Amino acid sequence: CQDDLGQVIVECFDQGLPCFKTKLVFTPNGDGINDYWNLIISSNACDYIVYIYDRYGKLLKTLSPENNKWDGTFRGYNLPSNDYWYVVEYKIDDKKYTYKSHFALKR
Q1: Cβ count near 32 (within 10 Å)
Q2: If you compute the radius of gyration of the chain from its CA atoms, what whole number of angstroms results?
Q3: Which branch of life, at top level (predicted)?
Q4: pLDDT at 42
Q5: What is the DSSP letter of 15?
Q6: Domains by residue range for the chain, with CATH
Q7: 3 state SS for 16-83
Q8: Which of 12, 28, 58, 66 is the most exposed place for a label (fewest CB within 10 A)?
Q9: Handedness of CA 83, 78, 23, 45 (dihedral sign)
Q10: pLDDT at position 63
Q11: Residue 80 has pLDDT above 90, yes or no
């Protein structure tokens, strides 16, 4: 489902898997609204890492619980409007899981 801020909520109920909440689109233009992309993960997945890739599979950013937002740049340069993909690797009770999806950056 999607809320009025363009955020999508993906819920996984099977075997106690976590819920993810993120934006389908973010607009890093400095206006203070949707300037960062991040993934909010429910508390039962504390140990996670998020990889963000461009359309060619190039790794652009790695996010963790301590550093969990992306400003749409790579090595200090603004990336273009486009679709980007992310992979979440997380553990619950020492069992590893992977979740994949995508979002759009609009400039």
Answers
A1: 6
A2: 14
A3: Bacteria
A4: 72
A5: G
A6: 7-105 (2.60.40)
A7: HCCCEEEECEECCCCCCCCCCEEEEECCCCCEEEEEEECCCCCEEEEECCCCCEECCEECCEECCCEE
A8: 66
A9: positive
A10: 96
A11: yes
